[in-house]
């Protein structure tokens, strides 16, 4: 049995509608919170054409996300960000090209096993309202046949990881705040220790203060767990903060630039990228470095000056200086002990 598709140029292609099946192995155990399981993800000329539309939704997208890194997809409306994401777990079918997870085409995986082996987090969270938090988190492990005790232990571990209390396992989604529900969604996606996670504007519907906290929490988790993550956002500042690499897509799903945040800010590929990143890209670049990376001045130079943590970014420090109408900041460590001083001219330089 064969089925027909069209490639990016409109040519008809035939391929076997019953591809060879390859099952994603379920980890024997994932008791360690220091798990480092991650998978390389490759888009190889990945294309999606919808019938009746003259332009592709995703047009020959080619990029590699190294194992354990976060790739952020950004671009204007109509850039194919969410479409590209959904191609990975086959929520949307490829028209042509390929996507490979650790060298194996997604078409060679059993569809159910493919999706169970990929963590998926969306903006609307998608928790089951009739199930407790604990039952929501344990959804995929139950489908995989884990023993009840193992699911309970994993749920307890994940609640702690995402900053929730053990008793929250007994609550229902309607009893939680938006930020708490998003944490539960993240815990559920991590439950079966997937090597790959897909995140579609997960913090987009949350107020700015909670959003910043969730971003920080997610980055802390990523430093610990080192998953491969594809993260969709419309916010370039969020992309710069979170991404190891950023893929900027043009309208029609064409790749404009794929590079590190620093390289994109310093060397935009063309006028489209420069305009998308913004004229204040030099200021945005300050968010890529932290005060702990600087050679700080002696503490005495900041006598009586406002205090700031050494894990703050240079952009945060500059904003603090402006707000406090000060020329110096006293930089302190997490335990509150002075680490040194920083001057306005240090940041501007």
Helix content: 25-40%
Ends distance:
65 Å
Based on CA atoms alone, the radius of gyration comes out at 22 Å
Low-confidence stretches: 1-36
CATH class of the largest domain: Alpha Beta
From N to C, what is the helix and strand string?
EEEEEHEEHEHHHHEHEHEEHHHEHEEH
What fraction of the residues are assigned to beta strands by DSSP?
15-25%
As laid out across the biggest beta sheet, the strand order is: 8-9-10-5-11-12
CATH superfamily of the largest domain: P-loop containing nucleotide triphosphate hydrolases
Q: Report mean pLDDT, rounded to a whole number.
A: 86
Description:
By secondary structure, the chain is of the alpha/beta class. It folds into 2 domains: 2-117 and 194-286, P-loop containing nucleotide triphosphate hydrolases (Rossmann fold, 3-Layer(aba) Sandwich), CATH 3.40.50.300; 290-348, CBS-domain, CATH 3.10.580.10. Helices cover 32% and strands 23% of the residues. The protein is built from 13 helices and 15 strands. Strands 8-9-10-5-11-12 form a 6-stranded mixed beta sheet, with helices on both faces. It has a 4-stranded antiparallel beta sheet with strand order 4-3-6-7, covered by helices on one side. The protein has a 3-stranded mixed beta sheet with strand order 13-14-15. The chain is globular and about 65 Å long.
